[in-house]
TrEMBL record:
Pathway: Alkaloid degradation; nicotine degradation. InterPro entries: 2Fe-2S-bd (IPR002888), 2Fe-2S-bd_dom_sf (IPR036884), 2Fe-2S_ferredoxin-like_sf (IPR036010), 2Fe-2S_ferredoxin-type (IPR001041), 2Fe2S_fd_BS (IPR006058), Aldehyde_Oxdr_Iron-Sulfur (IPR052914), Beta-grasp_dom_sf (IPR012675). The keyword Ubl conjugation does not apply. Residues 2-78 form the 2Fe-2S ferredoxin-type domain. SUPFAM superfamilies: 2Fe-2S ferredoxin-like, CO dehydrogenase ISP C-domain like. It comes from Thermocatellispora tengchongensis. This is Xanthine dehydrogenase YagT iron-sulfur-binding subunit. Gene3D superfamilies: 3.10.20.30, [2Fe-2S]-binding domain. GO terms for molecular function: 2 iron, 2 sulfur cluster binding; metal ion binding; oxidoreductase activity, acting on the aldehyde or oxo group of donors. It comes from the Bacteria.
Length: 172
């Protein structure tokens, strides 16, 4: 057993738990935050994606004890009270989900991805920070699978938010 303290969606939580407990199981079974889904439990589908100190990670692969002292953001923590996160609103507007099982992981992954600068495997010029085209978004979101095949609308939703943020930055 280990004593850990982490900040989950802005709330400090202290727990005593087995050192083998994954972050996903801590969130779902110990804290009742069931937004992050247990898809494959092997880090292959991305349904459990959360943000750990602002960076996206598969919660099924992270040990809870390794997150001691860190900030964890789940899909439940993206919205600001009753106001949806821009990505959540765009997912609704673009109909970017069908069954919805992958949506929490897709949302957290997209939120983290939008903050990650630099090139990807499809970037032509590796010395530049490329615009987030549909091709870039597909590459950067490739760790999040959707069994329903809602990719076209997921990419459209993420692209909409990326374009809005780029306009805001340019307007400053």
């Amino acid at each position: 057993m280990a004593e850990i303290t982490l900040r989950v969606n802005g709330v400090e939580r202290s727990l005593s738990l087995d050192t083998r407990v994954s972050l996903l199981d801590l969130l779902r079974e110990h804290l009742g935050l069931t937004g992050s889904k247990k898809g494959c439990d092997h880090g292959q589908c991305g349904a459990c994606t959360v943000l750990i100190d602002g960076r996206r990670a598969n919660a099924c692969l992270a040990l809870a004890v390794a997150c001691d002292g860190l900030e964890i953001t789940t899909v439940e923590g993206l919205a600001d009270g009753e106001e949806l996160h821009p990505l959540q609103a765009a997912f609704v507007e673009c109909d970017a989900f069908q069954c919805g099982y992958c949506t929490p992981g897709q949302l957290c992954s997209a939120a983290g991805m939008l903050r990650e600068p630099g090139p990807s495997a499809v970037t032509g010029d590796l010395t530049e920070d490329p615009a987030l085209t549909a091709e870039e978004i597909r590459e950067r979101m490739s760790g999040n699978l959707c069994r329903c095949g809602a990719y076209v609308n997921i990419v459209a939703a993420v692209h909409r938010v990326a374009a809005e943020r780029a306009r805001e930055v340019a307007g400053r």
